[in-house]
């Protein structure tokens, strides 16, 4: 646990967040140095001050926002060196609750390898989550698992095509630096060559999950299958009347079978894809908690 890591961690985050931005494709909206207009409004409201343009934000206000609404909320001072930065960067880009979920699932990934039961995944940095983290010796593995989960979620966001290249670079940068800090091989500071990777990566901006029972593909297959079935039914009374009609009927029956198979294949694929996306987006039900997991009770309040 390194309480003095806030400033160097913020220096690293600042490089990736960049300066002022008002990209209509960015779900974060109008931002300045990573601070959204919505967050700035909240800060000013909490200070009893009137609203103002986030582009007029001061350095002092930015630091206060990052400390109060991110670093302190995620209790980063109580996390091991390296991991504190990884959690902070994830929280800045995707929200503190999402960063906490990535950490909790990463902890469960590492615990599972040693046969331990999972902790609750609730997006809250509670006492038991911190206790579980600080019982793990291999923080390097936690950082790696967390970044893997982070990147998996980013792949499933609507704006991946716009910001994906920068996000991939950012996640890789965070992984390398955080792991090096955790190993004690470097001090926390932005390495030369880092560049901006803009775009808020919010779970609320996720692509829709594919459905096995609705959507354009299901509708098209269903319509085509229905049309083929109707045509085959209409021709059956004339079966044997001519070779041409018999051939057409056989073709329709085969086509109907192929469409049915295509529909079943789509349903299978859509179901599997939806489950994977739900897990990557942290909207899947958490695993059943082990009855003997002493770390669970105090956080089972959600």
From TrEMBL:
Region (Disordered): 193-215
Domain Peptidoglycan binding: 99-170
Keywords: Membrane, Transmembrane, Transmembrane helix
Record Pfam families: Glyco_hydro_108, PG_binding_3
Keyword Transmembrane helix among UniProt keywords: yes
TM region positions: 248-269
CDD domains: N-acetylmuramidase_GH108 (cd13926)
InterPro entries: Lysozyme-like_dom_sf, Peptidoglycan-bd_3, TtsA-like_GH18_dom
Domain TtsA-like Glycoside hydrolase family positions: 13-95
Protein name: N-acetylmuramidase
Origin species: Xanthobacter autotrophicus
